[in-house]
Amino acid sequence: MNTQLEKMKQKQECERRKRAAEEKHKEWVQKKREEERRERERKLSKEMAEKATKELEKMQLQEKAEEKEKERVAELQEKKARSEKIFKEWLHNARNKPRPLLYGYGFPHGKSAGLYFYYTYVVT
Question: Which PANTHER family does this entry report, sorted A to Z (predicted)?
Fold first, then answer.
């Protein structure tokens, strides 16, 4: 009877150890899954942060490019307006300029007035 009692105690002890081992295993698996879940969440949040940072940088670069384009267009318009103003001034001045003599060379009607020096002879 003592042996049966001892066997029963051993069996119960074995069952208790088995349940304790299963409990520990379940806790370990649960803890591992929790760690993996946290790791995935951390990775996901890190990726989202990187993505947001890249998007922000992209938007900033785009804004900068748009600003440069606006500056370039404004500069081009200013340059065009300035050149048009200068052209109009030139055109106005060209109308009011005295006309050159038709015959030129400083002689009346383009011919010398009787002095036939070889330096003054005009070849036409």
Answer: COILED-COIL DOMAIN-CONTAINING PROTEIN 34 (PTHR23247:SF2), NY-REN-41 ANTIGEN L15 -RELATED (PTHR23247)
Domain containing 22 equals: 2-110
The mean pLDDT value for 75-85 works out to: 97
- 27-to-13, 31, 44 alpha-carbon distances in Å: 21, 6, 25
In a domain, 80, yes or no: yes
Residue 17 structure tokens = 């150890």
Confidence check: pLDDT of 101 > 70: no
- C-alpha to C-alpha distances, 30 to 23, 24, 25, 34, 73, nearest whole angstrom: 10, 10, 8, 6, 63
Whether 124 is in a domain gets the answer: no
Give dist(CA 67, CA 88) in Å, integer: 31
Tens of pLDDT along 29-67? 999 999 999 999 999 999 999 999 999 999 999 999 999
- pTM assigned to the model: 0.47
The domain tally of the chain equals 1
- Residue identified by tokens 């370039």 is 72
